[in-house]
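Input (structure):
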């Protein structure tokens, strides 16, 4: 039996996928979490086989939660389930340790198959995201691959409108450290202002 934890801040999404997964033989949802803190606490208390994790969690960074969960339980399998279909989001999630990346535009059956594949240790990438990654490789346009997963998460949170203080709180960092990250990020990406950084993010599909 594959034991699954659903981590998404939308109750209706969790309820829908719980019904879908529980109806499948060999799959059972053992817990739900509406926040990163809840997801991490459940992993600590009773590690599941697979965590289905949204990147947008109300209390913090999905990639940061992913990093913390895997630091605690290295054998854990994580399937990121996200609204973002950009190559940059998927690449950074996989670099942070996710076993699979599925978009919320995927058919319900894709979730069932992805959970089984991830539980078996096989990497899964949504077809639309795989195509985006391939295009970046062909075009040599992988600008955000220069960033570490933590640096990318700072950018992602800045793009969604979080303040430096909010980013610091959600990533358990000091505001000064976040400022230092932003300075390093701008240097790596060759931009000299947050405005140009946001424009670059928009061009590469990081803004929904």
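Output (sequence):
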């Amino acid at each position: 039996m594959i034991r699954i934890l659903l981590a998404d801040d939308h109750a209706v999404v969790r309820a829908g996928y719980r019904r879908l997964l529980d109806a499948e033989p060999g799959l059972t949802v053992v817990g739900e979490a509406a926040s990163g803190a809840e997801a991490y606490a459940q992993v600590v208390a009773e590690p599941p086989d697979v965590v289905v994790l949204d990147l947008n969690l109300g209390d913090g960074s999905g990639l940061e939660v992913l990093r913390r969960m895997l630091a605690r339980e290295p054998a854990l399998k994580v399937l990121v389930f996200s609204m973002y279909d950009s190559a940059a989001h998927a690449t950074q999630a996989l670099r942070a340790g996710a076993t699979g990346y599925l978009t919320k535009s995927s058919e319900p059956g894709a979730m069932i198959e992805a959970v089984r594949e991830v539980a078996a240790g096989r990497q899964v990438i949504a077809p639309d995201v795989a195509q985006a990654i391939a295009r970046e490789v062909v075009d040599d346009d992988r600008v955000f691959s220069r960033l570490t997963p933590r640096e990318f998460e700072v950018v992602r949170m800045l793009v969604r409108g979080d303040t430096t203080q909010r980013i610091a709180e959600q990533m358990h960092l000091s505001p000064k450290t976040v400022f230092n990250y932003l300075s390093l990020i701008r240097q790596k990406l060759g931009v000299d202002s947050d405005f140009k950084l946001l424009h670059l993010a928009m061009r590469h599909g990081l803004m929904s």
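Notes: Strands lie at 2-7, 27-33, 50-53, 56-57, 60-61, 77-82, 100-103, 124-125. The chain has a mean pLDDT of 88.
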